[in-house]
Amino acid sequence: MIVVTGATGNVGRSLVRILADAGRQVTATSRRISDADVPQGVRHHRADLTTPEGLRPVLDGADALFLHDTATSAHLLRPQDILDAARAGGVGRVVVLSSQGVATRPDSASHGIVGRSIEDAVRRSGMDWTILRPGGFHSNAYAWSESVRTRRTVAAPFGDIGLPTVDPADIAGVAAAALYEDGHAGQVYELTGPALTTPRQRVQAIGDALGEPVRFVEQTRDEARAEMLRFMPEPVVETTLAILGEPTPAEQRVSPDVERVLGRAPGSFADWARRHAAAFR
Ligand SMILES: NC(=O)c1ccc[n+]([C@@H]2O[C@H](COP(=O)([O-])OP(=O)(O)OC[C@H]3O[C@@H](n4cnc5c(N)ncnc54)[C@H](OP(=O)(O)O)[C@@H]3O)[C@@H](O)[C@H]2O)c1
């Protein structure tokens, strides 16, 4: 049995499907998960990662755990308690969704320090572990879906600065491999897409997927900050703006790890936009 936390999210939903399609037994968990969120026949269980006792019943007797870091609420997350419960339940393997920021922004409270403490707990867990450090997700473009749907416009900062954003389905693919194949214990995988794309190019790709032009309006940093503060805590906003506006060479590097694990190139933003065009129509 493989337990997947964050199972209704961009990564977790794909992961549950990949594991179920591969014939693996899965228990999908999140706070609000219901029948409609899982493929037919997949077991699900409601649990809050901030109160790890709720996960105990599904961890007992499980083989492997996919641990979603829920970084934005990580001050509430007690990874040690979850990992202790997993080990006590007989779980032998843990795969954690961390972030590239642990390596590239080590001093950032939101990305580096919190992420490092979760990774450290995983390393000390006594289980076989694999750490996934993705860069920005293709699915961050969902933040633009309403303005594309209603106005065929996207307002975003740093229109011409490229990042190798990654398809959450590829993160899920690597997670699945690490959860049930051998050879991934003790590995730290850095996960990116196949190429740098700029916000302007991503907006163009959404327009191409829709078959209609979508206008790009470049925001100032202050305009972007004000908008992001409406739904993200301040330290997350500042680090995110720094990554989007002044990425380090490591944040702009295309990593070979998705291809190394999956044996194929990572999915492009344009491909993600075509598959998810309905969200922007
Ligand atoms: N987006 C990026 O660019 C990026 C880059 C690097 C790393 N990451 C990491 O990836 C993660 C986001 O992954 P994602 O996009 O797959 O997530 P997502 O789509 O935001 O989904 C979050 C999942 O976690 C569950 N969840 C949230 N709070 C919970 C809690 N207290 N207890 C139990 N479950 C909880 C949610 O379901 P319920 O609401 O039903 O609980 C949902 O299943 C972040 O933590 C971030 O650190 C993201």
Describe, in plain words, how this protein is organized in 3D:
This is NmrA family transcriptional regulator. Residues 6-180 form the NAD(P)-binding domain. Pfam families: NAD_binding_10 (PF13460). It comes from Streptosporangium pseudovulgare. The protein has 281 residues and is an alpha/beta fold. Helix content is 39%, strand content 16%. The chain contains 12 helices and 9 strands. A 7-stranded parallel sheet has the order 3-2-1-4-5-6-8, with helices on both faces. A two-stranded parallel sheet has the order 7-9. Helix 3 links the parallel strand 4 and strand 5. Helix 9 packs antiparallel against helix 10 (234-245). The protein is globular. It starts with a strand and ends in a 6-residue tail after the last helix. The structure holds NADP nicotinamide-adenine-dinucleotide phosphate. NADP nicotinamide-adenine-dinucleotide phosphate binds at residues 6-12, 30-33, 48-50, 68-71, 73, 97, 99, 134, 136-137, 140, 168.
Concise description?
Helix content is 39%, strand content 16%.
What are the salient characteristics of this protein?
alpha/beta; 12 helices; binds NADP nicotinamide-adenine-dinucleotide phosphate; two-stranded parallel sheet; 7-stranded parallel beta sheet; single chain; 39% helix; 281 residues
